[in-house]
Amino acid sequence: MIELIKDDGLWIVTINRPDKANSLTAAMLAELADIAEAAKDARALILTGAGKVFSAGADLEEARAGLAVSDVWERLSGALAALPCMTIAALNGTLAGGATGMALACDVRIATPGAKFFYPVMKLGFLPQPSDPKRMAALIGPARTKLILMGGQKITAQQAYEFGLIDRIVEPDTLIDTARDLTADSRAASPEIAARIKEMCAGF
User: Fold this and answer.
1) Any idea what the CATH number is for the domain that residue 175 is in?
2) Domain encompassing residue 77
3) Statement: residue 203 has pLDDT above 70
4) What are phi and psi of 112, to 5 degrees?
5) DSSP β-ladder status, 53-55 and 94-96
6) Total structural domains in the chain?
């Protein structure tokens, strides 16, 4: 249910469980984390989903059995954030719940016009993963982060773009091509230079 294509240094990782809105099981999350940890030699990485939803978050059955509080979410987002190459979340549709963490950990987020964004863990009785509020607040500010995490607001792709949660809105049929184009310069550059520029952009 996780597909990996390697193409001349570009790794394209696809969550492929569209019949279940790409909801994530423990096995899928572990596989995603394994891929992210193994991608240190990738020149760029694109993370996307199959169908019309990027991911509905945790598989509900497994969430109730403990997946919602598993440290595998942080393992995955931490591995993605630590990659020296450029990473892009190509959001083919709605992004919900814990799946938000992997998108926040990427360098750039692009999304289709119909995508919606929400993170309803509070009303389900769970805390968000520890790094998610910090990464979200760094992008959109504390108040808007609270609007999503505490206010339970579901925001549209246009609102997400205006907030700064995503960086571009892209039509579905050009989503992956756009992501590829965005990584082209980084893939062509010296990996050491690309990694150093990424470090320089990390904060001050």
Assistant:
1) 3.90.226.10
2) 2-200
3) no
4) -75, 160
5) parallel
6) 1
